[in-house]
């Protein structure tokens, strides 16, 4: 895999630096994919200089950063290796370059946005989030309003699968979450996005656990029934210990698909507020 490196006048090939310090990619790039007219960009590289750094973007391969100074340890690193497309609203909106050089506990990654322009060129590089870069690449290849549509690039079999899932959503046979999940599977099968099992799904520190997805209304209703039973159990437990609570809303029985979904909730109000956190409370009150 080609990794663009700077000439030795800028320190990368300094004879006093160990050869093991040369750029070493962590993974191989994904296969070239997406609109056929963009495949001609593969094998080419485009550079852009901002302040003291030079950036080299090689579509469908990688993006690198080189410090343009005469320091003996001038920085040079990989900001990402080509991995997958970002797709929104049936449109290819960006190229994700992931698995770059280490950056603390994670790796550097770059999102390349494709914009219409008169020539192929890298016009802007920024770092909106630490170790996550944003790049704007202009090209006349995306100026046509349909140039980045996903559906026309799919095989006939995947197009039929997409048609079926659109019909199922229209007939309310699947939920919005189920619809998005099947679309993701279509994009993965087409090779436009990485399978979730291939990527590291371990959440970052402080990241909240994602809410449970429901693919069908039946699963959603079943989960609501379970939650309603749990709330009732908690209410009985509060009543058993003499703790009052206020019901804000209540739903009884099973819901039909035409009924709105509301979940019961309770606000706990202690009979006395003199106890501090950690106080045994009830045990002391009986003496």
Q: Sheet bearing the most strands, described?
A: 8 strands, mixed
Q: Would you identify the regions where 5 or more consecutive residues have pLDDT less than 50?
A: 6-21, 201-210, 250-287
- Per DSSP E runs of 2 or more residues, the count of β-strands stands at 12
DSSP summary: helix tally: 4
Mean pLDDT: 78
Please report the distance between the alpha carbons of the first and last residues. 78 Å
Key phrases:
287 residues, alpha+beta, eight-stranded mixed β-sheet, two-stranded antiparallel sheet, 4 helices, 27% strand, flat, disordered C terminus
Question: Could you characterize what this model shows?
Answer:
The protein has 287 residues and is α+β, with helices and mostly antiparallel strands. Helices cover 20% and strands 27% of the residues. The chain contains four helices and twelve strands, in the order E-E-E-E-E-E-E-E-E-E-H-H-H-E-E-H. Strand 1 and strand 2 (53-58) form a beta hairpin. Helix 1 (156-170) packs antiparallel against helix 2 (176-190).
Brief digest:
20% of the residues are buried. Helix content is 20%, strand content 27%. With 287 residues, the chain is α+β, with helices and mostly antiparallel strands.
